Amino acid sequence: MQAEKYLNYTVEDFLGDDDFIRYVKYQQAIDLQFWNDVLTQHEEKRTDFEQAKIQIRIILSAEPMAIPADLTDSLWDDIEMSIEKSKRRGRIVKLRNIWLSGVAACLACFAYGSWYFYSDITVTTKYGEQKVLVLPDGSKVRLNANSSISYARAFNWNTSRQVTIDGEAYFEVKHLNQNPDDIKTGERFVAEGKKLRVEVLGTTFNLKSRPNVNQVTLVSGKVKVKSIVTGEEKILKPGEFARLATNSKFVVNGTATVAPQLSWKENKLLMAQTRVGDIIAEFENLYGFKVILPDTSMADKRIDGTISTASEESMLFVLKNILNVNVRQEGNNIYLEKR
């Protein structure tokens, strides 16, 4: 952080500055020292600085203050008695209007603060679509097709960075910690699927939360994965992935390469003795169809190679030739029929 950049800051600029928000929220020693130095160098910014700090504290408190009716009446009685009789009525009306305007402004601020702190932002992808987004803390997320991510509108001001995933997403989490051995609550990043919860510091990982598979693949860094179903926890190292099996058994495996788990980012599937049933499940996840096999034993056939997932036609073309079947579509159902 450079003190010079705050020379031209307004109240609004302070309210949007992540370093300033962290200072107000956590009051860490290193931040206290830094902002004291800033005000020492730029005393002229103290008024804007203090106003911004008060506004953040008001929003963070998110609690309205009730004024007793008897106290209000007593205050107005004292005001009326102190004003000259000839000017009393006009002044009282003016003061009452100012007071009521202040109350209305406070209520509006409280309503806005409540909405801001208790509402979420949700980003979704359609079938066959991917999206890349940057979270308010600078972390990057790539969403796979037919997926969604939700996070608090007040993401930077919450006590923890937390997102919820339905589908599949690849994360590049931004480091916020100043001391890796003393991680503060607000520095942690939590990604939660339907059955797995991932807690990270600064990490690159893939979270898959689909009806047929719940899996976390760690590319770099370190994560703690928790089964929401059983409560069991696992620590992953780079190159490992944790999967929750259909029987709710929590399994951790190492892999020579994470490429197969991440190949969806390049619109393809890398297969190494992959079950046809798993490929069909992925097709259904990506494009929303229901695939019916003429013989359920076909689902256990295993294949190697690469399949493009860029379009439903390309995936069906490969399946059609591998299984030696014809394709017939009726509405949302796709029938693979023996030739």
UniProtKB/TrEMBL annotation:
Please give the start and end residues of each transmembrane region. 98-118
Gene3D superfamilies tied to this protein:
2.60.120.1440, 3.55.50.30
Which molecular-function annotations from GO does this UniProt entry contain?
sigma factor antagonist activity
Q: Which UniProt keywords apply?
A: Membrane, Transmembrane, Transmembrane helix
User: Which Pfam families does the UniProt record give?
Assistant: FecR, FecR_C
Q: Which residues form the Protein FecR C-terminal domain?
A: 270-336
Enumerate the spans annotated as FecR protein domain. 122-224
Keyword Disulfide bond listed? The answer is no
Q: Which InterPro entries match?
A: FecR (IPR006860), FecR_C (IPR032508), Ferrdict_sens_TM (IPR012373)
Q: Can you tell which superkingdom this protein's organism belongs to?
A: Bacteria
| Protein name from the UniProt record | FecR family protein
